Each structure stands twice: as C-alpha cells, then as structure tokens.
C-alpha cells in the first residue's frame, strides 16, 4: 500500500540551505515530496503548471531571492493559491520584511537557524502550522 504524500514547494536560491532544510524535513516526516525552485518567479511558474489536486500542502519561501522575493511571490499569488499554507524563512530578520510577509498572507516568518537544535525546532514549528494536513498521512 502506497503511503500518502505531503507535498512541499521550497523556493530558495541557496542550494546549501535547500539541502539542509530538505534533510531535516524528510527526517521529521518521511512521506513528503519536495519540489524545489531557485527564485520567486520559478515558484509562481511552478504553481501555474499544477492542477488543484496537485497543489502543494505547504509553500516555503526564502525572503531574499532573485527576480521575485518572498513578498513579491505572496503578492502575485493567484487567489487559488492563497489557501495553501505558506511560510517564509530567511537570514533577514528585519521587522519590515516580517510585517510585509505576514500582511500578505504568510502564516509565519522564520529566521534561518544557525544550529541543528534550532533547525529541528523550525521544522517542528512548520509541521505544527500544517498539522491538519500532516494528520491525514
């Protein structure tokens, strides 16, 4: 029997950060499928190729990306994508970035962790935010 899959779209221009987060997410929740893109424009384009049944259960956006940053992505998202839980993670902890993303619909803004315990807590917090979808697995 095939296990249900929790789908995540991760948009981050730093491949090392992508790898670190993907490994932590997969360790915490083995039945996930993570699509990655390297900028905000690619995130919007990726979403536009999906049918509603294939939408991710979660979108994770880095704030500082080329072409479109996280705030740009949030503001350009089609109404159909607004129901997808979206979080931002970034090295930037500037209050204006945080406030902007939250006002545009991000559920949470995380500062990228600098230690393994912080990363584990961030992943745990992400799955708490998405608890209804995770419980379906």
UniProtKB/TrEMBL annotation:
SMART domains, per the entry: REC
Q: Which domain of life is it from?
A: Bacteria
Tell me the GO BP annotations in alphabetical order: phosphorelay signal transduction system
The species is Chitinophaga skermanii
Keywords from UniProt, A to Z, are: Phosphoprotein
Domain Response regulatory span(s) in chain numbering: 7-127
Q: Quick one: signal sequence residues?
A: none
Presence of the UniProt keyword Phosphoprotein in the record: yes
Q: What is this protein called?
A: Response regulator receiver domain-containing protein
Q: Which residues carry this modification: 4-aspartylphosphate?
A: 62
Q: Which SUPFAM superfamilies match?
A: CheY-like
């Amino acid at each position: 029997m095939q296990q249900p899959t929790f789908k995540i779209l991760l948009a981050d221009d730093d491949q090392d950060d992508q790898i670190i987060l993907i490994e932590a997410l997969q360790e915490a929740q083995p039945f996930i499928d993570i699509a990655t893109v390297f900028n905000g424009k690619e995130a919007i384009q990726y979403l536009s190729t999906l049918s509603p049944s294939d939408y991710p259960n979660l979108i994770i956006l880095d704030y500082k990306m080329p072409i479109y940053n996280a705030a740009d992505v949030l503001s350009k998202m089609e109404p159909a994508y607004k129901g997808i839980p979206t979080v931002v993670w970034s090295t930037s902890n500037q209050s204006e970035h945080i406030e902007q993303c939250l006002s545009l619909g991000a559920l949470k803004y995380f500062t990228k962790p600098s230690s393994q315990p912080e990363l584990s807590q961030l992943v745990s917090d992400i799955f708490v935010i998405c608890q209804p979808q995770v419980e379906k697995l």
